[in-house]
Amino acid sequence: MDIHQLRSFKTIVEKGNFQDAAKELNYSLSAISYQIQQLENEIKFPLFEKIGRRMLPTEQSLKLIPHIKKIEEEIEQIKQLNSKDRRIEGSLNISVSDSLLTYILQPVLKEFIETAPDVKLKLKVRNCYEVQKEIIRNNIDLGIHYQVHGYDEQIRVKELSTFTVGVMASPAFSQEERNFDRKDQVKSCSVINNDANGVYQQYFEEYLNKKNITTGQNIELWSIEAIKKSIINNLGIACLPHFVVEEEIKNGEIIEINIKGFQRSITMITAHHTNKWISPAMELFLKILNEKMI
Fold it and tell me: Tell me: domain 1-79, CATH 1.10.1520.10, correct?
């Protein structure tokens, strides 16, 4: 067996099908199918089984994935030997929260891409809990998200910054609806979010439940920008980090509802497996990130 066969198998599992994996690796469909056939002949057990119209990895074949990742890391380390004067290459897989990617990480990404243009950077937008799962399963190199449940000693965590959150509304939002301090209320306003499982959305939901306050319908949108536009147009209210709406508050397009009992903060962290090899690409990214967050 060779690394190309192993990498093909891993990519098929990650992409979910042969066609997308072949496109990712720049192979023909027949070439990647042949590689899988050769690998099966060598390891003496099937890698995939047909369920309906889909080809799914067998339970036994999935045990190969952690070993393949270790092999890839070892190969990358070998490539980096005596490479102090070489350009930084390789790949870097990062999962990150939407608001952090959109409003905090843009300068970091710009400098990283300019400094290391040969690195294949893969960014996935996930909520905090999904990022945490990917880190624990060692499916990504680095996670950047808001602190939620704690990690065990296998995960290295670094706190970068703490941000405050608040409940945002349009200046046209009804004065009668703005009181969220009083208990036992029924309100007609809608609550907007981009992920019902998002950490700051959950903070606000917990507060509403504690106060026994019922709101109108929940509106789930696809992005923070869409949420802000909806707030400005008075379609509902939303709990958001202050850094997301700084400009809109300054321009008078959005206001913050003053809620005495709701003062929450969120902590931005980086996290990765303790035994994860810190590649030159990852080392550079973390260096730029830490410098920008000072």
Answer: no
Give the residues across from 90 on adjacent strands: none
What's this model's pTM, rounded to 2 decimal places?
0.73
Can you say how many angstroms the Cα of residue 90 is from the centroid of all Cα atoms in its chain?
A: 20
**Model confidence pLDDT, tens digit, residues 9-31:** 999 998 889 999 999 899 999 99
Highest mean pLDDT among 12-16, 55-59, 77-81, 287-291: 287-291
Q: Which residues of 116-151 are buried (b: 16+ CB within 10 A; e: fewer)?
A: beebeeeeebbbbbbbbebbeebebbbbbbbbbeeb
Q: Could you tell me the CA-to-CA distances from 138 to 47, 67, 81, 142, 274 in Å, in that order? A: 21, 12, 24, 9, 10
Q: CB neighbours of 136 closer than 8 A, spacing ≥ 6?
A: 151, 154, 155
When the pLDDT of each residue in the chain is averaged and rounded to a whole number, the result is 90
Residue-range domain boundaries for the chain: 1-79, 162-266
Q: Which helix (H) or strand (E) holds 18?
A: helix 18-25
Express each pLDDT in 170-199 by its tens digit: 999 999 999 999 999 999 999 999 887 788
> In the structure encoding, which two tokens stand for residue 186, read together?
């029924």
Q: Nearest CA to 87 among 107, 110, 114?
A: 114
Q: Which CATH class is domain 162-266?
A: alpha beta
**Residue 169: pLDDT band by 50, 70, 90 thresholds?**
very high
Cβ neighbours for 40, distance < 8 A, ≥ 6 positions apart? 46, 47
Q: Which of 176, 186, 181, 183 is nearest to 214 (CA)?
A: 186
